[in-house]
């Protein structure tokens, strides 16, 4: 496949010290961000540079395995980060996410709030008439603002908003979840006509009509959650279908070869990607002994999955070597390898792990490197406990700059779910799901329940940010699973960070915290 790296002309500017960014107050250290910090705003000095910096901000926020990734995946039933001796203890930040016992002082809660709200303000400056951006620049900025505000709305349920001409003496107004929902919808609809039409290929690093349709589909699919209505309305589900059909009209389609989608190459599924390093996705899960020529030190030996999530995949649950009857998405553990990196498995790594020459790997104490299905708990684990999860592969480079943000298979399943929830379409939800399963080399389903749909989304989209949101929509986020007994419903929203409440009295703490 043709490599689709694009060398972005990203102007790297000093982000400075955001000493009060929970209140959206910026020091005048970013020369392209704003001309003046208080009152009499006259526009950003370099619109193109500011927009490039906004893409760079998205890249940074997607790159880390903490913050947004941690909040969406570490709180779900598909990922856990067990403490191994003293490794991955991190003052309990991972354990509290898994156990649903986080509070308003959690680092990831604060960092995500700060970074995404800061991005919203910087993008608002680009959009402001004083900056004199052209129509496409405004459209891209509105898409990026919608993306960042979407996540604040989704995670926290309220969004502070500062106008460009308001100084630090003005407390930002606070949008309710429904107000933020409408704001994001408006940004996307206003941006749509002036966004470029980009189909499958290397141009998908940029905001496009297809990316806007995808985010609008997400909004409509979760609208009944965001607006706290009893159930999804048929008209909203039809809107999901219409937006996905627009993506199909742009040329996106399902692709055979599941793990090839996560290579830095052209494919038919990637609607939006960023040049974030995929290293955090890979090395956070692999063992120290699983190194490559360009990363001889190996992995960081942390992230694992739950046995019950692994069991959702088709195939013998006790073995995952090639040809053992598993569906493609579960991956495999090769018994030997003949080129750099390929001896490391793909998907879910369980049981004995092997070196490139076929010899059995060992841990640092000399024990056979056997990844076990079961863990003793969130504490007290050794180096080998837990099935590892690997969607991006080190054979493509130790820190390859390519992470998928929006993917067509997600849109495709959104359409199938919208049909199941009453949306109008000539397509059939079960037929659509079975079409995907056939491409992924899994047996067809005979019927389609809500649980089946949630399970299918898990099998297709694991570690792609959507599991927490899916569990909330399907009503399982406050259920119990391994090492997680808390069923508090208010955990569907994260708390407003304590320092944000102090700096902006217009904010109110979410119920339960």
Topology:
Layout (H helix, E strand, L loop, with lengths): L46 H17 L3 H7 L19 H7 L7 H21 L7 H22 L2 E3 L11 E3 L1 H15 L17 H13 L1 H4 L7 H16 L20 E8 L1 H5 L23 H4 L20 E2 L13 E4 L1 E2 L17 E2 L16 E3 L10 E7 H13 L8 H11 L10 H12 L5 H8 L23 H6 L10
Antiparallel strand pairs: 1-2, 3-9, 4-5, 5-8, 6-7
Helix pairs in contact: 1-4, 1-5, 2-4, 4-5, 5-6, 6-7, 7-9, 7-12, 9-12, 12-13, 12-14, 14-15
Head-to-tail CA distance between termini: 50 Å
- Give the low-pLDDT segments: 1-38
Rg from Cα: 23 Å
Number of strands: 9
Largest sheet data:
3 strands, antiparallel
* Helix segment tally: 16
Helix-and-strand structural type? mainly alpha
Q: What general form does the structure show? A: globular
Major beta sheet, strand line-up: 4-5-8
Strand content: 5-15%
What percentage of residues falls in helices of 4 or more residues? 25-40%
**Mean pLDDT across every amino acid position:** 91
Order of helices and strands: HHHHHEEHHHHEHHEEEEEEHHHHH
